[in-house]
Amino acid sequence: MSFSIRHETLSRIWPVSDILDLFALPFNDLLLQAQTIHRQHHPANAVQQSSLLSIKTGACPEDCAYCPQSSRYATAVEQAPLMPLPQVLEAARQAQAAGAQRFCMGAAWRSPTERQLDDVIEHVQAVKALGMETCVTLGMLKPGQAERLKAAGLDYYNHNLDTAPEYYGEIIHTRTYDDRLQTLQRVRDAGLKVCCGGIVGLGESREIRAGLIAALANLDPYPESVPINQLVKVPGTPLADAPDLDPLEFVRTIAVTRIVMPKTVVRLSAGRESMHDSTQALCFMAGANSIFHGEQLLTTPNPHTQADASLFQRLGLVPMPQPTEAHLS
After folding, report:
1. Residue 224, class by beta-carbon neighbours within 10 Å (0-12 exposed, 13-18 middle, 19+ buried)?
2. Considering 186, 195, 209, 252, which one is annotated as catalytic?
3. Residue among 180, 252, 267, 272 flagged as catalytic
4. Residue 196 is a catalytic residue
5. Which of 26, 126, 159, 242 lies most in the core, judged by the most C-beta atoms within 10 Å?
6. 200: which strand partners?
7. Active-site entry in 6, 12, 39, 64
8. pTM for the whole structure
9. What angle do CA 243, 247, 253 make, to 5 degrees?
């Protein structure tokens, strides 16, 4: 199955060839265009801050080549069952005190059972009661599950496309691209907001990166949140020795994402811990306006909160006021 093509008056269908043309622009021209579009739709120096917690870790039956939580790979990740509610609430309170506006919870499941969903719903309701936005990523959703999450007060559901359709089979074999699109459709049909992005640095070509952005931009509507992850190479995974992505190519990816999805919030997600401050600064100039903060993202490292605060001060960045993301129209 696939999403329908977008039909808004001010929107357009993005062929991969047009996105490649954007990638090929002189670097300064690309950033100027991205920053100009960014300022038309978002506060110029405001950044939305989210926190991400792994509430159930490891033992995932999927074979995603980048993921240390897969049961198929020998990594240093320790398995842990679903985190008790008091522990989750304490983490949410700490994140809120540190400035997080949204609390995201991830569970390493292929697809949650109804009983597992019951437990997650309790977590969602408790975090929502703190006054925070809520997001979960639980894998594929069955019919009716997205509606249950919506009724519980969930704001966002995260389900990434990961890469372009034509490269997907090089990275994952245990679920199809259509499986991902089906879950996204169920999320949309339930009235939830969509958080959906991908990973770069998987050994893909620029054309594949353009294909990922095209797949995201041509969803109907495109996601309210688009996390762009730079591969964190974890020993024991098939991609542990993937070649490094040129930092300026990563910045170009952010800029092109901003241009083709002007109203979305573009998040710098995994991989920031290894980025130089100057690379992050260029990403913010290119239209990124969201980060995950906290010292860990699920099972991979993230910059310390103090380091982020220092960088924000040096760049003159401020927290994004609520509501964090405009409705797409």
Report:
1. buried
2. 195
3. 267
4. no
5. 159
6. 230
7. 64
8. 0.88
9. 100
In degrees, rounded to 5, the angle at the alpha carbon of residue 325 between the alpha carbons of residues 312 and 252 is 60
Q: Is the peptide bond before 243 cis (omega within 30 degrees of 0)?
A: no
188 is a catalytic site residue = no
Of these residues, 60, 188, 258, 283, which one is catalytic?
Answer: 60
E strand segments, 183-287? 193-195, 198-200, 225-230, 265-268
* Single-letter code of the amino acid located at 207: E
Q: Is 283 a catalytic residue?
A: no
Closest Cα to residue 248, out of 210, 213, 286, 214? 286
Place of tokens 């917690």: 53
Burial category of 148 from C-beta neighbours within 10 Å (exposed 0-12, middle 13-18, buried 19 and up):
middle
What is the Cα Rg of the chain in Å?
Answer: 18
Choice among 67, 196, 252, 272 that is catalytic:
67
Helix or strand or coil: residue 86?
helix
Residue 42 is encoded by which pair of tokens? 């978002």
Question: Do residues 79 and 68 touch, judged by C-beta distance below 8 A?
Answer: no
Both tokens assigned to 198: 């991908």
The tens-digit pLDDT sequence of the chain (329 residues) is 333 333 333 467 999 999 999 999 999 999 999 999 999 999 999 999 888 888 888 778 888 888 888 878 877 777 888 899 999 999 999 888 888 889 999 988 888 999 999 999 999 999 999 989 999 999 999 999 999 999 999 999 999 999 999 999 999 999 899 999 999 999 999 999 999 999 999 999 999 999 999 999 999 899 999 999 999 999 989 998 999 999 999 999 999 999 999 999 999 988 888 889 999 999 999 999 999 875 544 555 555 678 888 898 999 999 887 654 444 43
Q: Decide if 110 is catalytic.
A: no
